[in-house]
């Protein structure tokens, strides 16, 4: 399995400034923002700053590229082959082909700072990842902008966030270029080439790059700032300019509390065995396994060694497991024959894993099986993982299976002592089924009660048991993990 980028921001540090919300964007739903008729601004000098959590990697749409933003025919900012590229205009593309951004567990901060008035050509477009400038760049058949060039950005052409404007005459968003993931604190500055330190800073203790308050930014007349903090108007501009963007297929439910300052667990696209057919969508909270595919399993992005944790799960059929997997169980993304969690001695079982089966409610693992409770498409399964006592409890519509009581450490299933000290949340899905998971930051599961943990984190259908917490980095920093 590919190694994650360990120095990336995972939101686990005290920042002094909190980003409260992000927006989830999904290619399958054609979710994006747009301004059909923007007013022209400064086309020579401008800055983009945004935080992104890429929930799906590689090729997820027809074009093979995931657009963060685009304007007209030649304004382009996107990931292709997991490399980041920025096009100033036709013939002037700057791209970093040395670093693949393939860490679905972390938030990435990107700054593109442009000033074509600069004498030195390399100062005309500067790209920063988590506060560090990338200097090993290529030009896609072109070069840096010529001095005093006017680019394709901040003109009057159709502007999009979350896709590229390639439909029709470049005057509508095009689903072939949509991104999958989360965006937070999207800033577009008209007329100033800012440094990354105007948007973020390195934490004194950890050295991790973290966001800053943007109240001192001079936005310019056509700048805009998307905080995604108003669920009734997620495209609202917070710069004071009223340069609001229109939502396309975006609803209040697409607002998320998964942010760079409180990062939540999601499904890990790096362990999706067949991403071209099996899909991990909706911010990596929904896994679909189509007809003709074998069982497959997905783990969460967080590895846990201590603490008490809660999440919820739902399936659309009878072919599902929910549970945990040893972090060293590398068969989940590797096996062509299909694998599912902890099913006794069956050849298709994953080693070092445990799961409650939807069909009969049995809790299977490599230490044997115990009684659980079956669950149907209308029911929500609650999972309470007690790493301190090495027990896991399952509830179906808030009734704990096997007379267990996680708050009082009564009953519950355990797992083999041969496992390592670290486990991941995990789930399995049979062919022609889909499953959905809710770790608390975002979910596609319909929630009516909006319960949170004792710290106020997470949005769940049922309140976590006393002493159990949502899988987010603010909780991990307090209780371990």
List keywords for this structure.
2 domains, 481 residues, eight-stranded antiparallel sheet, 33 strands, eight-stranded mixed sheet, Jelly Rolls, 33% strand, mainly beta
Write the layout of secondary structure elements.
Elements: E1 22-25, E2 32-35, E3 45-54, E4 65-71, E5 75-80, E6 83-89, E7 92-96, E8 108-115, E9 125-129, E10 132-133, E11 159-161, E12 164-167, E13 172-174, E14 181-190, E15 200-202, E16 209-211, E17 224-226, E18 246-248, E19 255-256, E20 279-281, E21 286-289, E22 296-299, E23 308-315, E24 320-326, E25 353-357, E26 363-365, E27 368-370, E28 381-386, E29 391-396, E30 399-400, E31 423-429, E32 433-438, E33 469-470, H1 473-479
Parallel strand pairs: 23-33
Antiparallel strand pairs: 1-14, 1-19, 2-11, 2-18, 3-8, 3-14, 4-5, 4-11, 5-6, 6-7, 8-9, 9-10, 12-13, 14-17, 15-16, 20-21, 21-32, 22-31, 23-28, 23-32, 24-25, 24-31, 25-26, 26-27, 28-29, 29-30
In short:
This protein is an all-beta fold and 481 residues long. 1% of the residues lie in helices and 33% in strands.
């Amino acid at each position: 399995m590919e190694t994650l980028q360990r120095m990336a921001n995972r939101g686990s540090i005290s920042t002094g400034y909190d980003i409260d919300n992000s927006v989830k964007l999904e290619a399958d739903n054609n979710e994006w923002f747009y301004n059909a008729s923007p007013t022209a601004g400064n086309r020579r000098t401008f800055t983009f700053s945004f935080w992104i959590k890429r929930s799906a990697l590689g090729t997820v749409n027809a074009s093979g590229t995931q657009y963060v933003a685009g304007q007209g025919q030649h304004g382009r900012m996107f990931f292709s082959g997991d490399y980041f590229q920025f096009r100033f205009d036709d013939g002037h593309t700057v791209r970093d082909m040395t670093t693949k951004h393939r860490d679905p567990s972390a938030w990435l901060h990107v700054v593109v700072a442009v000033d074509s008035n600069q004498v030195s050509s390399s100062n005309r477009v500067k790209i920063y990842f988590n506060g560090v400038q990338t200097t090993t760049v290529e030009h896609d058949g072109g070069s840096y902008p010529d001095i005093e060039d006017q680019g394709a950005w901040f003109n009057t052409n159709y502007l999009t966030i979350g896709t590229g404007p390639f439909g029709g005459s470049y005057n509508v968003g095009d689903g072939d270029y949509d991104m999958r993931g989360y965006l937070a604190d999207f800033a577009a500055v008209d007329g100033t080439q800012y440094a990354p330190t105007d948007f973020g800073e390195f934490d004194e203790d950890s050295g991790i790059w973290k966001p800053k308050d943007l109240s001192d930014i001079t936005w310019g007349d056509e700048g805009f700032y998307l905080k995604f903090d108003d669920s009734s108007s997620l495209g609202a501009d917070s710069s004071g300019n009223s340069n609001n963007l229109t939502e396309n297929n975006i609803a209040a439910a697409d607002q998320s509390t998964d942010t760079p300052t409180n990062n939540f667990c999601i499904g890990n696209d790096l362990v999706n065995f067949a991403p071209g057919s099996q899909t991990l969508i909706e911010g990596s909270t929904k896994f679909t396994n189509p007809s003709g595919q074998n069982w497959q399993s997905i783990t969460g992005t967080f590895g846990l060694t201590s603490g008490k944790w809660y999440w919820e799960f739902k399936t659309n059929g009878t072919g599902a497991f929910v549970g945990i997997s040893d972090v060293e169980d590398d068969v989940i993304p590797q096996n062509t024959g299909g694998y599912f969690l902890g099913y006794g001695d069956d050849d298709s079982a994953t080693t070092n894993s445990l799961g409650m089966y939807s069909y009969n409610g049995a809790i299977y693992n490599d230490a044997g099986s115990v009684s659980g409770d079956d669950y149907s498409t209308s029911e929500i399964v609650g999972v309470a993982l007690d790493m301190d006592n090495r027990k896991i409890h399952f509830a179906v519509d808030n009734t704990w299976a096997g007379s267990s009581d996680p708050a009082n450490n009564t009953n519950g299933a355990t797992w083999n002592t041969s496992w390592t000290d670290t486990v991941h949340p995990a789930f399995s899905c049979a062919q022609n089924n889909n499953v959905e998971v809710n770790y608390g930051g975002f979910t596609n599961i319909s929630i009516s009660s909006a319960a949170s943990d004792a710290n106020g984190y997470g949005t769940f259908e049922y309140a976590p048991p006393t002493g159990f917490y949502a899988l987010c980095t603010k909780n991990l920093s307090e209780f371990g993990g």
